[in-house]
Structures are given as C-alpha cells and as structure tokens.
Amino acid sequence: MSQVQEPSLAALARENWTEVTPQALYGKLQTIARNLWWSWKPEVGQLFRDLDPVRWRQLDHNPIALLAEMTAEQVAERASEMAMITRINQAHRRLHDYLTKTDHTWGAREAGVLGSKPVAYFSAEFGMHESVPIYSGGLGILSGDHIKSASGLGIPLIAMGLFYDQGYFKQHLDSEGYQQEEYVNTKVATQPMEPAVGKDGKPIMVSIETRNGALNAKVWLVRVGRVKLYLLDCDVEGNSPQDRELTSRLYGGDTRTRIRQELVLGIGGVKALRALGITPGAYHLNEGHSAFAPLEVIHERMQDDGLSFDDALREVAQQTVFTTHTPVPAGHDRFDAGLIEEHLGPTRDKLGISHDQLMGLGRVEPQNGEETFTMTVIGLKLSRRANAVSSLHGVVSRRMWANLWPWRVEEEVPIGHITNGVHVPTWLALPMRQMYDRYLGVDWQSKMYDPETWQGIYQVDPGELWETHHALKSRCLDFVRRRLSRQCRRRSEDEAHVDAARLALDPAALTIGFARRFATYKRADLFLKRLDDIAELINDTNRPVQFIFAGKAHPADEPGKGFIKKIANLRNDPRFAGRVVFVEDYDMNVARHMIQGVDVWLNNPRRPLEASGTSGMKVVLNGGLNCSILDGWWGEAYNGKNGFSIGNGTQHVDTAITDQRDADHLYEVLRDEVVPLFYDRDADGLPHQWIERMVNSIATLAARFSAHRMVQDYVKLCYLPAAGGLSSEMGMR
Ligand SMILES: *Cc1c(COP(=O)(O)O)cnc(C)c1O
Fold it and tell me: PANTHER family annotated for this entry (predicted)?
C-alpha cells in the first residue's frame, strides 16, 4: 500500500466539502484512518465497519488495513449504498475542526505557558487501540489514555515511546489449557505511522554510543488527535542483525535487551526531540524504563549553557516529573555495573563523571558497591517531583523509598500521588453516551472532569438505565460466545464442544467479569479456594451466577500460566461448563466488550500490591459495579454505596492467611450482598436498589477517575511548576 501524505491544513480548508469523487472520498477516509482520533469516536469507527463488517472484525478493526483492500471505486460504491457520504464528509470536517480550533480548550486557558515548551511524556508502551499492538497491559493503556486526554484538553504535550513490530504476543490455550504465545509481525504499512522528519525535511535517525559501538534508531510519528507520539525503531541498516530486532518485542529478552531498549527510549528519545527541534519545558517519565533520559538532557544543558554537571543536574531535575507504578521491590528494573558501564559509559564520559558517581545515581546508598543500579532510584534522584498512582500507593512508595531521604521522617518523603484515570470517550459505550447526552446536557463531554457534570444521572429513568445496560450485556455475551466457539474450532474440538460454546452463558444470570494481566499478585485464582461454595452460587437455579475470565500471563511467569490453566479447565467440570469461561487473547477489544457488558467487575489483588488498577474505572462509566479489595484506586473510591468491598482493607503478615481470609470475604460478599441485591426485583421486574448503586457509582466516580482529571492534576501540580521553575514539591498530597 502506498503511504498517503496527510494534506496540509490549508489544503483541507480550501477543499470543497460536497465533492464526492471516489478519490476525494477515499482520501478523506485515509486522512481519518491516519489519526487515532477516530478510535475514540464510535460513530466515526462505524464508518469503517460499515464498509465491510466482516473484514473489519477480521482485521482487528484496523482502518488502514481495511482501506488497503479496497479501491476508491469500491469504497465510493459501498458508501453510496450505505448512505455514508454525508457521514464521511462530516467526520472529516470534525477532525479538521478538532485539529485547528484549539482556542477554547482547557489547556489554552490553563496551560498556555507550555505552548512554546511542551511536555515530553516518555513511556515504554502505549495502548491506544487494538490495531496498534504496542502495549501489554495497564501501564500502556494508562499512557494511551494520558495522551488522549492531553489531546482533548489541548495540553501542549508530545509523547515518546518505542515501536515493537511484534508487540506483545497473541495468546492461545492448547487443549490442556496451557498458554501458547505467538508473535506476529505487524506490517508497518498497516500502522498509522509515518517517518518523522526534522527541520530539513529529512527522516530523523538517532545514534546512541555504547562501549560496544553505536545503536541506531529511526523515528516514527503517530498522530493521536492533537498529540504527536514518536516511536523509536531499531530495525535500521547499520545496526547488527541482533540489534535490528532489539525493539521487536515488548518485555521480551534478557536484562541486556532490556537495558538496550531503555537506552534507546531514554537517551535516544531525548536525541530525537532535539533532532525534531523540540525544546520541552517539562519531562514526564512514566515509570522507570525511561529514567536514563535526564542524563542526556543534563549533557545538553552542559553543552548549550556551559553549566557544570551539578548545576545542570539541579536544573534538569527541576524540569523532570517521575511517576512510579510498582509497589514491589522485585518489579523494578535493576542492572549490574558491567551493563551500566557498557551502555552509559560514553554518556558519563561526556558528563565528566566517574563510573562510581554514575552508579551512585542508581543506588539507594551511593557508596554501596554491592548494590545494583535501579531505574526507579535514578528516576527519583533526577526528578524534583515524583508521584505514585493512588493514595495508598503513595504511602507504600514513601515507605519503600524512605532510605533515599534518611534525614526525613516517612511522611515527609517527597513522593506524592496522583491517582490514575481513564479516557472516558475511549471506554464509554455508545448507547451509554447517548443516554448521558440526554441526562447530563449535550456538552457534558467538555466538562467530564467536573463532578457536578455527572449529577444529572440522579434524574435517570431506572428502566432506561437497566435496558441500556442489558443491551450492552447481550452484546458482551454474544461476543464471548463467538470467541468461545472460535477457540473450540481452533483446537479442532468436536461439534458438541462448539455447540456448548454457542450456548454458554445465560443473559439473565448475574455476570461477573475478571480480566487483567495474570500476574500472580492479582490472584485470579482466589475464588478457587472456596470453589465448592462458589459452585453452589453458580448453580443456584433461581439466582445463578456466571464468570467471564480473560488475561495473559507473562511468557516467563509459570505460576501465572498455572492460574490460567486451572481456570480454563473448569469447563471440563459439569458444575462450571458454560458458567465459568475463559476468553483467549485479552486485548483492548476484549477489554472493551467486557467492561461495557458485565454486571460486576471483580478485582482481588493481594493488598497493597495493586498500585492503582484502572479496568474498574472503565466499568463505572458503563454502569457495571465494582466488587474489589480495598486496594489501589478502590481504597479511595468505595463509599459503601457505589459498589462492593471484599473485606475491610486489612491484611495479615502471613500471605497464606491473607489469601484465605480474602477468599472467604469474596465468597461472603457475593453470597450476602451481591447476589441478593441483584435478584431483588420489584413488581416492574427491576432491581431498584441495584440500579441505585449503579447511579451512585457513576455520580461519585466517573469524574474523579477520568484521565481528564488526572491530566489536569499533572498540569497543575507538576507540569506548570516544572516548566515555570516553581518549587512546590508536596502539593500532590
Ligand atoms: C484497562 C486495561 C488493563 C488494566 O487493567 P487493571 O485492572 O488495571 O490491571 C490491562 N489490559 C487492558 C487491555 C486494559 O484495557
């Protein structure tokens, strides 16, 4: 497929909007397909689906791949059959307006000073849409949601990441229920990417010196609404065959691969910004993967402004914001001295610092030769503002890193918190949005971060809310059944199994969803500890319960794969067949169907290991209720009336005891609260108290846990002070 250049804005403005030559129509769809803006506008995405619903699904909802299979004439013919031409013209004009009319945005009012010196947001993964597979889980989705909200709010922000042409993996289970990983090459031509060019109009390349020769990377540009995301890619001539594959896979490979990827992201990312002619006012390091970046910025300041290393460090730290996401020491990247010297040696030469000084920046105790180099530690040392991602995670992080500030009491450790949020337009189902349009006022989306905006939901007609939810639930169950039969066919199982998959799940039954990475601390297997009791709940003829599970285990995580196997194999037990199901290959598409359609979202991590969690926030928007351990975001969200809590937020020092207690609490809350409330119907057949909880959940949580609120917090508490030289550090608590 030929790469289509996006027409200049001036050319767009000159265009005759009623023109309908096939080429013009095709060109408009191409332009729309090449900006991920379409992915959070469901009615725009439907344009592509309507062109060819079957291929749309088969191609992972990838509009570029879909258009590549059709000629302009075919598109025009189909569009006129489907009466889509006006809709295409309108969508194209809306995109154009969105990109050009920015005066009225919150960012234009509140973050104007960032205009000439934008925020540079670094992250190792970005989850924006299933057709751009460069994410693995929550961290990536958070980054994607962050930049989408920055776009919506009109915040001057550019983003930096890596392009993984094999992404994470596709998951299948074999007939024993064991996870199989398949790596699929993404064709660049199907991605909404174009080569990033410098001021001279030539494609940008960056080169990073190591003690073992240079590592080279090219730079791609992805348009995410108004935000530009740049992705570094090592598959270039001049790199060794091994290095050409360096950025192939997300979280694959050994520690040497890992440090090389992080070198490219951090040092390479800063070099790419310079080549692009961008001078950021603030740097936001989303997790430790990019924490080498400030070293390169320090080098720039020494070179440009003649500063000493210490002075440059002080100034760069002032501009740097660091967000930590990991509440367990083992979750932090650590590198030994040899790897650091091999990869950062040339950088430290330029900085004029010794090997021990550099190692000291990555150690809690700089002089301790036994200590390895930790990315989180250098991130904390090179940033003036650091934050955790929920209130409880803030407490845990201050305790965990207290030794970095031995002269301070724990409460005074300078790590604040900004609780995560989700990008509402991405996760909100269209029928729910249409309902909000009626109850919250037509322009509610422009104030979705304001809790007041959501108060109108108290006026909702309970029957209307319930019916809307039910339509979404049916859609979810249809999707799951379709996936289950596909899974059976893939394993060449007999027709009896395929038929059973087709008949799985009961639309009237209380439906509980659980989907996330199968990291062991998330304890997907917790309910197995009370399996016989859960079996009774499931098989209650009057008040049945059913479970939908999904999630990938990291390829090296055998215990996580064991959880998947146990859960998937429950289908062989007649008590659970068709009532506990496992959907393979969890991605944003599976996530969207599940969070939009379940009655209850289950989250039972081992407290306090879930730094925030975000999937439950997506559920809130669509009327589902959370049933969760009081960990991460739920610890600050739950108010007794807007969902359910498993236990009361305590844990035993012995994890086995904690796990058993939590399993007991899980069973008890289902038996005593969730099931009775769901099945308590009035004469009109509606569960009024349940619906009341749905309303409370939306009214009290939707604004607070939106990514718009989150990005506004980052702007006010971090970006503006960082770019403007203000020195408030504790505002985040
Ligand atoms: C939201 C989301 C996550 C994060 O889920 P948590 O419950 O926060 O772990 C992970 N993967 C996908 C595909 C998601 O959409």
Answer: GLYCOGEN PHOSPHORYLASE (PTHR42655)
Looking at the fold, whether 122 and 89 belong to one and the same domain comes out as: no
The predicted structure's pLDDT at residue 13: 42
Task: Give the 3-state secondary structure of residue 227.
Answer: strand
Tell me if 289 is assigned to some domain: yes
Kindly report whether the peptide bond that precedes residue 559 is cis, defined as omega within 30 degrees of 0. Answer: no
Q: Is the dihedral of CA 287, 289, 292, 296 positive or negative?
A: negative
Mutate to test the pocket of ligand 1, among 614, 618, 627, 706 (most ligand atoms within 8 A of CB): 614
- Expressed in angstroms and rounded, the spacing between residue 450 Cα and the centre of ligand 1 is 24
> Is residue 483 in a domain?
no
Q: Clarify whether residues 367 and 515 are in a common domain.
A: no
* Ligand 1 atom with minimal separation from the 592 CA: 15
CA of 616, closest atom in ligand 1? 7
Note whether 59 and 125 are same-domain residues.
no
What percentage of the chain exceeds 70 in pLDDT?
96
Q: Is 352 helix (H, G, I), strand (E, B) or coil?
A: coil
Q: Which atom of ligand 1 is nearest to the CA of 427?
A: 15
112-117 mean pLDDT: 89
Q: What is the CATH number of the domain that holds 156?
A: 3.40.50.2000
Establish if 546 belongs to a structural domain. Answer: yes
CA of 137 to the centre of ligand 1 (A): 5
Co-location of 127 and 211 in the same domain: yes
pLDDT of 12 reads: 44
First-to-final CA distance of the chain: 51
3-class DSSP state of 96: helix
Range of the domain at 140: 106-169+181-420+712-722
Long-range contacts of 430-435 (CB under 8 A, 24+ apart): 430/42, 430/43, 431/468, 431/471, 431/472, 432/468, 432/472, 432/596, 432/621, 432/622, 432/623, 433/42, 435/460, 435/464, 435/465, 435/468
Of 52, 84, 100, the residue at which a domain comes to its end is 100
Same domain membership, residue 276 and residue 355: yes
Beta strands, E only, 187-343 = 193-195, 205-210, 213-224, 227-233, 282-286, 320-323, 334-335
Q: Which of 388, 411, 389, 384 is nearest to 399 (CA)?
A: 411
Mean pLDDT of the chain: 95
Residues 545 and 403 placed together within one structural domain of the fold: no
- Specify whether 75 is located in the same domain as 127: no
| 8 A C-beta contact, residue 91 and residue 40 | no
- How many residues make up the chain in this entry? 733
Ligand 1: residue of 251, 424, 517 to mutate (most ligand atoms within 8 A of CB) is 517
pTM of the model: 0.95
Task: Tell me which residue of 637, 647, 651, 652 sits closest to 391, measured CA to CA.
Answer: 637
Q: Report whether 595 contacts 474 (CB < 8 A).
A: no
Whether residue 153 is contained in a domain is answered as yes
Q: Distance (Å, rounded) from C-alpha 144 to C-alpha 366?
A: 35
Which residue type occupies 452?
A: E
Pocket test for ligand 1, best of 132, 516, 584 (most atoms within 8 A of CB): 516
Domain edge (last residue) among 100, 130, 159: 100
Cα 618 to middle of ligand 1, angstroms = 9
Residue 402 has pLDDT above 90, yes or no: yes
> In this structure, which residue's CA is closest to atom 8 in ligand 1?
613
For the chain, the domain total comes to 3
423 near 144, Cβ under 8 Å?
Answer: yes
Question: 161 and 39, same structural domain?
Answer: no
How close is the Cα of 35 to the center of ligand 1, in Å? Answer: 23
Cβ–Cβ < 8 Å for 335, 358? no
Those residues whose C-beta lies under 8 Å from the C-beta of residue 301, and which sit 6 or more positions away, are: 307, 312, 315, 316
- Beta-carbon contacts of 522 under 8 Å, excluding residues fewer than 6 positions away, are 516, 603, 604, 605, 606, 610
